[in-house]
Structure prediction request, 232 residues.
Amino acid sequence: MQLNDLWSALRAPEVSFSVLLTLRICVACLVLHALAAIPLARLGMAKNVYLRRVVNFVITLPLVFPPMAMGFLLLMLFGRNGWGGMALQQVFGMSLVFSQGGIILAAWLAGLPLVIKPVQTALTNPDLLRLEQAARVCGASPISCFFLVTLPLIRHGLGAGLLLGITRAMGEVGISLMLGGNIAGRTNTLSLEVFNAVSTGEFQRAALLCSMLAIISLLLYLGIEWCQKRSF
Prediction:
């Protein structure tokens, strides 16, 4: 592919839209994963064995359950006749099905297990537990201990988890296909656009999109590797 052809392919409306949508989804998932990671990780480490098992099962479900089946269940839950869909419509006047909100939900759920597990590993580090206990003995409040001790020491584990979550969110297809519908100019992400290009026999465009995904994945991998080499 020559440079002019490459530029023309990148400027195609379906490609530019899918790239921008994927970036928005990754940013949204980064924020949502960052907000949910530590609370859910803590719940998954609860002393109550039943609560711990339920939380860990729900968190791990998107990782072990077939994506298309997961998407179908979410479609039934948030569809027009699902109780989740009816509640959203009545309270907020919105619908997640076949919308960008549904795509964000699908990407967030898909990446959630990969975010939580590294955070749980960091939170159970014996050195971290000793430093937290020392801070509490010295009079630090739980909030001060969290922001001054826990969060700084697990930042690399949290960073690795967030980057893993982004990689999974960026590559999500199955759940997004069921919940978002793969609507051109509305819910077609970069990964779905690869599927669309192959389906229509546009292998050159599919190769271009795969190259873009490969470059982004390499950068994310380097970031994950950097985080994993650090303490905690």
